[in-house]
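Its record is quoted verbatim for completeness.
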Amino acid sequence: MKFDFNRKYNTIAAYTLIVIAIGAAIVIGISNISQVGAFFSKIFSILTPFLWGFAIAYILTPVLKYCERTLGRIFKGKLKPRPRRTLSVIFTYLFALIVLIVFFRIVIPQIAQSFATLASQVPSWMEQLKVIAMELAEKYDLQNIDLNALEATTFDKLLNTLQDMLKNLSTALTSAIPQIIQTTVNVTASVLNVIIGFIISVYMMFSKELFFARIRKLLTALFPEKSVEKMAVVIHQSNDIFSGFISGKILDSFIIGLLCFVFMSIFGWPYAMLISVIVGVTNVIPYFGPFIGAIPSILILLMVEPWTALWFAIFILVLQQIDGNIIGPKILGDSTGLSAFWVIFAITIFGSLMGPLGMFIGVPLFAVIYSLVRQFAEWRLSKKGLPTTTDEYASKEHPIIKK
């Protein structure tokens, strides 16, 4: 007996089975959410060195490309690709090593010294607060309060609290020992993962084209060639957005931090290195970064030299205007293609979901999503024979206002 297979119904049946399988997997996953979470946490822990390696290689890739271009110009194309890649990788990691040495030999000690100085000034600040309190008491006629009795009572309370703390010290230390051991193990594992990640990143830098070709080969074997071509285009576009934004923002933040340090050093303002690091690191977050970095910096200066804090606030406003209108556009250009509204939207959403990391990568990530949605919409409109420019869909009574 011969069966008459209908290709249309077979396709429908296959899609139905796939949907049922995905639905069953989702239901099982939700009902066993703790086991699923533990499983993915274990997988993430295993893959951590490779994630570090990918991140390091991705961040250093612009430096690698610059070295390859420079070597190509120096040797005028006579240097073969493999030796050029080898020399470029060596120069790239020498650059990274120099940056790390400068950071740990110069930046970290000055930051530690700044923290030590701040800690040493806490008693004097407390004395100043006490003097201010006495002046306020005299000003508002609060002399009827027995300050000596108040101080004695406060001292007794502090002494009792200290005695309670000493009684519980041995118990606290005993209970903290396992946690200290676990923290030490975690820190050691993290350091080891970073070291292994550096080693893995070297292999990724040497053979990044080979990795991409193998992934594309596997996808071509599993999916139609046209679909793979579209995926490759999307991957390249996403890489251009991420790479351009991340490398550009890191360079921009480094320049801002350096300018801040030079300016503060010229005028002899205190805690120049600490504040410059805060300003530079927080500057990687678009729009909100300058405010996030300026607030703690102003508070630090306010406790030491109030007038300096005021001048610093004015300086930060000027510096951020220079960054937003001159330095940033020169380095970043239009790497994301997002308007200011969508940048703020991306920072808010991904910052809420992922914290500071989301505020940093949220902009390029949303730029990729925005680009895919725009391309899909334009493709659907072109299939319908409709115009793809946004101006065509504005109201005639209220046209789009352009520059």
Q: What stands out?
A: Residues 33-75 form the longest helix (43 residues). Residues 61 and 116 are 37 Å apart (CA to CA). The radius of gyration is 30 Å.
